[in-house]
Design goal:
The protein is α+β, with helices and mostly antiparallel strands. The protein has helices at residues 10-14, 40-48, 52-55, 70-80, 98-103, 126-138, 141-145, 303-320, 399-405, 477-488; strands at residues 163-172, 175-181, 184-189, 202-211, 216-220, 239-247, 251-256, 259-264, 283-292, 297-301, 326-335, 338-342, 347-351, 372-380, 387-390, 411-420, 423-429, 432-437, 458-467, 472-476. It is elongated and about 155 Å long.
């Protein structure tokens, strides 16, 4: 600071802002520096309060705040982290080598490896099998069946129409008691079981309601009928047993418990029902399709139950069926191209060519509706479910013995079954036909076959060729006719001597010929032998 400058007066000190000390990057505060005194012009201006910045003390610029980079922060954090102290090595004893000292050092703990995921398809190990057998041997069967019966506990109550996997606890009179899990138990009518269930057998039941008096749930087997007393027991989708009380043109009049219902004629069976009177006084297990108490409408369907059972059997039968299997079925319908057969859960088609070894004009000539037949699975498509059947494969094949019965060269009598432009077909036996080509009909030229033979005409033919694989026989009528004519001639008759015939051209000249044919030719003179 210059010695010529004078210190500021008390009036100037109030308008002067001290300069703050700058901080050193190392963290130590720098010593304050002396501030030079203002000039007389500046002091006079401040004293007079001229200028808005000077009046508010903003005339002097403030120093900038120190800047710190991200690199400085990272370095400071590294310095702050404590370093791990290295353990001092164990001093070696006298005569001990360095390798031995390292060997006695504590070994590092091995890192845990990956644990193999258990597979349900693989069996348990021997130690686990032994442990499981020991635990099961100590278990009490009565304690397992009591309470939850080995099923998961359930705290919330069961809702109606809930499907539950239960276990049979006991059978008493006409009721079967089952465990539903937790403290819940239910009762199922014994008549709903096809066979008597064994204790501990798992069954699937549907909860129908809760009986507070007994503390048991009323349950039913899926697909079984329920007891109906009034409209409160009926709901759409439930299965009931209906008694047919009458019929009309539209369907059947039924009674379910104390409620009257109606079954349309299209919902009686899977096939068309012409006469509904045959179902009167019968009990039909039906599905409730509509239950409206306000309008008094109860509509039933027996066909839905049949279709449900048929679909379940169809899945089971599709898994077992194979080409070549034999089934017994019923002919349901006959068409021009074949017959449809009901195999129980599946339908198959017998083509007209597979009905008989003979030629069939119409399937009704061989089968009739309602006839019980045995058929063989010839083709089967799992994707479409179409099945091709054969009825003739279970009959005796006449071609098995035809080769010996109709040997090549033998003559047989047959009947003309068909006529074509290239020849005619002759039926030799049941399922055996041969072709007589137009060139084998007669020794002369035949222009029209139907002008020479007619259908139903009995003819004699000779077997020319026989092909078992392609089931073709070549026949000839003219060869059989020639053989018949030769056989008709007497074998011992000697041929008669014919009288000498007259010459057609008689000689007109008598005596030697002219021209010197009788004399020497003179060829010897030229070395010729004439």
């Amino acid at each position: 600071m210059s010695t010529e400058s004078q210190p500021a007066g008390p009036d100037d000190a109030s308008n002067t802002n001290p300069v703050p000390a700058e901080s050193d990057p190392s963290g130590q505060q720098a010593a304050p520096t002396d501030v030079a005194p203002k000039s007389e012009t500046t002091q006079s201006t401040v004293a007079r309060g001229a200028g808005p910045l000077a009046a508010r003390g903003l005339g002097v610029a403030k120093p900038a705040s120190p800047t710190v980079s991200t690199e400085d922060i990272a370095k400071a954090e590294k310095k702050a982290k404590p370093k791990k102290k290295k353990q001092a090595p164990r001093p070696r004893l006298g005569g001990e080598k360095e390798a031995a000292a390292k060997a006695e050092a504590p070994a590092e703990k091995p890192k845990p490896g990956k644990v193999a995921v258990p597979n349900l398809r693989e069996g348990l190990s021997d130690d686990l099998e032994a442990e499981l057998a020991a635990e099961l041997g100590l278990a009490d069967v009565e304690s397992m069946l009591s309470g939850s019966a080995g099923m998961p506990d359930r705290k919330e109550p069961l809702a109606d129409n809930t499907r539950v996997n239960a276990q049979v606890l006991k059978i008493h009179q006409d009721s079967v008691y089952v465990a539903l899990g937790g403290p819940d138990e239910g009762v199922v009518p014994f008549e709903q079981f096809e066979t008597e269930p064994a204790l501990g057998t798992p069954v699937e039941v549907i909860v129908r309601g809760f009986n507070r008096a007994d503390g048991l749930y009323a349950c039913a087997i899926p697909g079984s009928t329920i007891e109906v007393a009034d409209w409160s027991d009926l709901e759409e989708g439930s299965v009931v047993e209906a008694v047919v009380t009458g019929h009309n043109t539209g369907g059947l009049e039924c009674k379910v418990g104390g409620v009257r219902g109606f079954m349309p004629i299209s919902q009686i069976a899977e096939y068309r029902v012409e006469d509904a009177s045959e179902f009167v006084d019968q009990k039909l297990v039906s599905l409730v399709t509509e239950a409206n108490e306000r309008r008094g409408n109860l509509v039933l369907s027996h066909r839905a139950i049949l279709e449900r059972e048929r679909e379940q059997k169809k899945k089971e039968q599709l898994e077992k069926i194979q080409v070549g299997d034999t089934f017994e079925g019923t002919v349901r319908s006959i068409k021009d191209f074949g017959a449809f057969v009901d195999l129980g859960a599946l339908d198959g088609l017998i083509h007209i060519t597979k009905l008989s070894w003979e030629r069939v004009k119409h399937p009704s000539d061989v089968l009739e509706v309602g006839q019980k037949v045995k058929v063989k699975i010839e083709t089967f498509d799992k994707e479409t479910g179409k099945i091709g059947l054969s009825y003739r494969d279970l009959l005796e094949n006449p071609w098995d013995s035809a080769e010996s019965d109709f040997a090549v060269g033998s003559i047989h009598t047959g009947t003309v079954s068909r006529i074509a432009s290239f020849g005619c077909f002759v039926r030799l036996a049941a399922g055996i036909e041969g072709l007589v080509h137009v060139s084998e009909l007669a020794h002369h030229r035949v222009s029209k076959v139907d002008a020479f033979v007619s259908e139903g005409q009995a003819v004699e033919v000779k077997v020319l060729t026989f092909d078992r694989d392609s089931q073709k026989i070549g026949l000839s009528m003219k060869a059989a006719k020639k053989l018949a004519e030769d056989a008709a001639k007497p074998k011992d008759a000697e041929p008669e001597d014919e009288p000498p015939r007259d010459l057609a051209v008689k000689p007109m000249h008598e005596g030697p010929l002219k021209g010197g044919n009788d004399g020497a030719s003179g060829g010897e003179r030229f070395g010729l032998r004439w």
